[in-house]
Amino acid sequence: MKFLNKQLYSGFTLAEVLITLGIIGVVAAMTLPTLNQKLSDQKNMSSLKKAYSILQQATLLVISEHEAPEYWTIEDNDQELVNTIYNYYKPHFNMMRECQNSSGCWGYPTKYLNGNVYWSAHNTSWYQYAFTLTDGINVLLDIYDTSNAQSFGVDVDYPCPVFWVDVNADRLPNQIGRDMFAFVVTRKGLQPAGVDLDDDGDCTPSGNGWTCVSRIIRDGWTIKYLE
Hints:
This protein has helices at 14-66, 79-89, 146-150, 212-218, and strands at 95-100, 110-111, 117-119, 129-133, 138-144, 160-166, 180-186, 189-192. A six-stranded antiparallel sheet has the order 1-4-5-6-7-8. The chain has a two-stranded antiparallel ribbon with strand order 2-3. The longest helix has 53 residues, at 14-66. It is 33% helix and 18% strand. It is built from four helices and eight strands; from the N terminus they run H-H-E-E-E-E-E-H-E-E-E-H. It is of the alpha+beta class and 227 residues long.
């Protein structure tokens, strides 16, 4: 008698496939936001590094042309002075838009690292000058008196110009220490916020984020303080 060989076939049931896909979906939903945030942070750090280089080179040229900032007779809330300092820098920047004490070149509301609001909207009484570089980086020039300038973690004894940088232009989160960062103009050149601090406790999820640039540089241009 001749017997026929029977092949046995095995596979997944529809229910098993659906359960597997469901598990994959849950894992993806949990990991993708974190992955996207890390990719966004890496891109932001690349833009921050570029902005620092541009502002630093421009500051060194401005100081060579107009002396150090302590000789600029700086006062807070002086639009004419802000315009003057801006005009010192303007020839050294490539810009695609300018906003003289007006909205349109800066993201609002501007938030602290802890989520609280620093600037809710533009206020013409602040006397600021904002502009956007051709690579899409927003920059805001403001004047801070001596005590407020020291709040940036920079050792100064005179009022200073401060450059705020929004590395991803008009996109969210518009959060200091995440995509917005500060640099102070001193006699030494452009100083990253926090450069003269021994303690960078401000760079935590509960901090305001003002002094985080130096921490980022020390950590190899990465945001480790939010991990």
